[in-house]
Amino acid sequence: MVDNGVIADDGVDDSRRKFLLAATVATGSVGAVFTAVPFISSWTISERDRALGAPTEFDLSKLEPGQMALAKWRKQPIYVVRRTPEMLKLLADHDSQLKDPKSEDSDQPDYADNAMRSRNAEYLVLVAVCTHLGCLPKARFEPADPGLGTDWPGGFACPCHGSRFDLAGRVFEGSPASKNLRVPPYAFADTHKLVIGLDDAKGAA
Amino acid sequence: MVKVRIAAPAAFALVLLAAGAASTTAPAAEEAAAGNAYGADWASWRADTSVSDRQSLQRGARDFLSYCAGCHSLKYMRYSRMGDDLDIAPDLMQQYLVPKGRKPTDYIVAPLPPADGTTWFGKAPPDLSLIARARGTDYLYQFLMTFYADPSRATGVNNLAKDAVAMPHVLSTLEGEKRAVFKNVQTRAADGKEITSKAFDHFEQLSAGQLSREQYAAFVRDVVNFLDYTGEPAQAHRRALGVWVVLFLLVFSWLAWLLKTEYWKDVH
Amino acid sequence: MATVAKPSGSEPAAKAGGLKAWFYKRLPIEDFIRSQLTGYYAPKNFNVWYFFGFIALTVLAMQLLTGIFLTMFYKPGEATAFDSVEYIMREVNSGWLIRYLHSTGASAFFLVVYLHMFRALLYGSYKAPRELLWVIGMFVYLALMAEAFFGYVLPYGNMSYWAAQVITNIFSTIPGIGPGLTEWIRGDYAISDATLNRFFSLHVAAVPLALILLVVLHLVALRQTGSSNPDGIEIKEKVGADGKPLDGIPFHPYYTVKDTFGISVFLVLFAIVVFFVPTLGGLFLEHANFEPADPLSTPDPIAPSWYFTPYYAILRAVPNQRIGALLMLISVMAYLFLPWLDRSPVKSMRYRGPLSRAFLAIFVVSFLGLMYLGMRPPEGIYVLLARIFSVGYFAYFGLMYWYTKWDRVKPVPERVRFDSHG
Q1: Is A46's CB within 8 Å of C92's CB?
Q2: Model pLDDT, residue C182
Q3: B133, B104, B72, B237: which is closest to A47 by C-alpha?
Q4: C212-247, pLDDT tens digit by residue?
Q5: Any chain B CB within 8 A of the CB of C90?
Q6: In this structure, are residues C193 and C78 in contact, taking their beta carbons and an 8 Å threshold?
Q7: Residue A12 is part of which domain span?
Q8: Residues of B in contact with A23 (CB under 8 A)
């Protein structure tokens, strides 16, 4: 308590002070939170970059069976693989060696939630970002590749930390990665045009 | 954020299909002075537009894209942004407003190559995204309303708001053609000498356009309103948010005042 | 192992006390709170003119915050600057708000600083022992002007370009080294990418650092002498039994609470501008700057931002380029000499006589008049008025040495005048 002739704070309504102080601090805090909102939201993806992240088209007519091409969507590399019947056969019998053979923990659209991890068996579309720490997995389609072992069924091998994925992008046991490679949304505008980033390409120009 | 209202697409479709621009605003003030002195007070004509008039903006968007976007780009505007803000449904956008082969997220770019613009008009048609902020809506309104026939010029027209304008009177099919009548006036030059110069007196209509004077003024208002919008698309949102912010701050000020007076009771 | 005193009380309280004590032992926080807040005594008779220092500090903090965020999206460079500002306005979420906060903040900063400086003229706050406080404050003002100038060039609109052109041209009036100096400042034959990029670095890094340092020095100098007050008497000369000034009150809670109110009123006015009239009819954001820089087309009319126009008017009032530039420089620097020009025995205008009051009034009218005229084209009656107001402006400083000595003074009170609200 102070009383030096200048400040006399006896006879003070302490509860009113506490209340007003609390009310002011509370209102001020609310204001501070609202003030933070525009600054935080400025970091969200801008309209320009959302537009740049729009679906991209890919021409399938030049892709030979057994070949893989590199497409781009949302500034990320996308693998488009045209699988041969032989490659598809090799997908069948190594479920026991996979961490997530039914893709229960992995990211893919509904139509890729199957053993082929794709809309149709022939074309595989994957986000070429290793689910461990993000490197670009290399294509190692040759079965029984000397570097990868005689029982290697063909697939992808990441050069950074050695994660391995099969020809449906499913991750093998023993890999540092724990999830299968992501499948992006995609659709076929017609037999030779793939649209990456859309679930439904009907009516796309 | 895509705001798609149910009523808006229907409303916008009606707007699109209407022939010409229907005037929903009161007759232009200049009409009152019409007759034999039309245009005498052109320098005090006001655009009188409001960006909260969404229907006007929709008409303006349609009209701009029909009549102006061939030469003038809006390079900071996306079709999709315009559609969101103006409540135009995406399929209507795609069908009527987005040119073939362009995506809705594209910027509104004019097909006219700048080099050709310079060759044909002497000056490339400028981008108009920010023209309303740079010159003001009143000027833009006056500009589009004061073209007159001038056979001495290559384009055949001149303009009161911008003398020796490079732009031809693109909207003459709508407004018709008019000529400017000048009168001789005595003025004092800067050095005090009396000189005779020509001053604009009034317009005379030479041929009728598709629109009446009223309708044309309303058309111009819509286009100018749209350009006001493209100058700052966030302005409606800004004002709406501002109301809440100021109210909140007034409440906070009141609390801060109570707190201050309470504590200052101590001080003698 | 250090022993921590265990206060009686619940365990969590002891833990909290322990954490606070841990910090207090390692940083002079307790000392700081006592010396700067609860133990710092400020005069109790502060009036409305005493709000503006704290408001200026708040605006500085806001400019730093909004400026940092703008720098995340702005791209310096002749080809990219203008587009990047429109990117911020249209495509960055809430970018328009951050931009307007920064542009309005710049003008608000000057308005507040001018009112803050005027307080010193009104109450003689620059007089001994506060001369250095005033001088440091003047350097804050100069740094602020530099910061505003560099910042204004960054959007690279047409006014940005021509403002840079005109101001850098002023340096070419310096005899001998002028033209070479101007080219060195620009980094090119004319304002260009080179100029823009270095102005960006100065605006974002160099001058803010200098500003923060100067503001800290300004506050340190203030705490050393203590604040003056509207009566101009030194409160430390009358202390009570407890050693505290009889006319002083602890800064915390009394002035923390009062400044909170002051800030909230300022924010109401600030928000009204930001949300409803951010361009203020072309005063805060000029029309010409919504067109990209065009070296072939000077805006008509051309004028600097409103906070520079008084000095610009003085520059134009003089028919000789070199003398005009020199007088403009003197007009800005004149404030520095006030502590030594002012020979009045009293500080506050409340106790000064008619001469001081008249000259202060002349100064205010001239300053505001010059501000207005600087925005108008230099023709007709404006030319004469600008010259008259320039004379008035310089008279305030130039004749002060004499009129402050000859002026009548009223007796200064023993204790401050204070109306209790309690």
Answers
A1: yes
A2: 94
A3: B104
A4: 999 999 999 999 999 999 999 999 988 888 888 989
A5: yes
A6: yes
A7: 1-44
A8: 255
Question: Neighbours of A (≥3 Cβ pairs closer than 8 A)?
Answer: B, C
Distance CA C6, CA C8 (A): 6
Contacting partners of chain C (3+ CB pairs under 8 A): A, B
Q: Give the DSSP H/E element, type plus range, for residue C59.
A: helix C52-71
The pTM for the full model equals: 0.88
Q: Which of A4, A24, A44 sits opposite C93 (nearest CB)?
A: A44
Question: In this structure, are residues C403 and C359 in contact, taking their beta carbons and an 8 Å threshold?
Answer: yes
pLDDT value of residue B11: 56
Nearest chain A CA: its distance from C98 CA (Å): 8
Instruction: Please list every residue in chain A whose beta carbon sits closer than 8 Å to the beta carbon of residue C244.
Output: 4, 6
Give the pLDDT score at A185. 93
Q: Is residue A7 part of a domain?
A: yes
Query: Hey, are the CB atoms on B266 and A20 less than 8 Å from each other?
Result: no
pLDDT at B13: 53
User: What band does A204 get if pLDDT is binned at 50, 70 and 90?
Assistant: very low
User: Cα–Cα distance between C386 and C398 in angstroms, integer?
Assistant: 18
Give the tokens for residue B122.
């002497």
- How far apart are alpha carbons C223 and C36 in whole angstroms? 8
Tell me whether residues B242 and C89 touch, CB distance under 8 A. Answer: no
Max CA-CA distance within chain B? 84
Nearest one of B58, B131, B130, B123 to B97, comparing CA atoms: B58
Same domain, A108 and A33: no
Cβ-nearest to A4 among C65, C95, C242: C242
- Extents of the domains making up chain C: 35-307, 336-413
* pLDDT over 50 (residue B6): no
Q: How does DSSP classify residue C292? A: B
As given in the structure block, the two tokens for residue A115 are 């053993």
Q: Average pLDDT in the B150-171 region?
A: 93
Instruction: Return the pLDDT at A5.
Output: 52
Distance, in Å, from the CA atom of B129 to the CA atom of C381, rounded to the nearest integer, reads 38
The whole-number average pLDDT for the span C1-6 is 49
- Number of structural domains in chain A: 2
Give residues 243 to 262 of C whose Cβ lies within 8 Å of B: 249, 253-254, 257-258, 260-261
Label residues A183-200 b or e (16+ Cβ within 10 Å = b): bbbbbebeeeebbbbbee
Same domain, A99 and A153: yes
* Distance separating alpha carbons of residues C37 and C250, to the nearest angstrom: 7
Q: Are B98 and B79 in contact (CB under 8 A)?
A: yes
Residue among C393, C415, C402 nearest C344 (CA): C402
> Are C422 and B265 an interchain contact pair (Cβ–Cβ within 8 Å)?
yes
For B187-213, the pLDDT digits (tens) are: 887 777 888 888 899 999 999 999 999
Same domain, A31 and A62: no
ipTM, two decimals: 0.90
Give CB contacts under 8 A, 24+ apart, made by C296-300. Answer: C297/C158, C298/C162, C299/C158, C299/C159, C299/C162
pLDDT computed for residue C9 by the predictor: 46
Is there a domain that residue A97 lies in? yes
pLDDT band at residue A81 under the 50/70/90 scheme: very high
Which of B148-160 are b and which e, b meaning 16 or more Cβ less than 10 Å from the residue's Cβ?
bbbeeeebebbbb
A24 touches chain C (CB under 8 A): yes
Q: What is the CATH number of the domain that holds A78?
A: 2.102.10.10
pLDDT at B2: 40
pLDDT for A184 beyond 70: yes
Contacts of C287 in chain B (CB under 8 A): 133-136
The reported pLDDT for the residue numbered A93 is 82
Contact status of B188 with chain C (Cβ, < 8 Å): no
CATH class, domain C35-307, is: mainly alpha
Q: Where are the alpha helices (DSSP H) in C8-47?
A: 11-26, 29-32
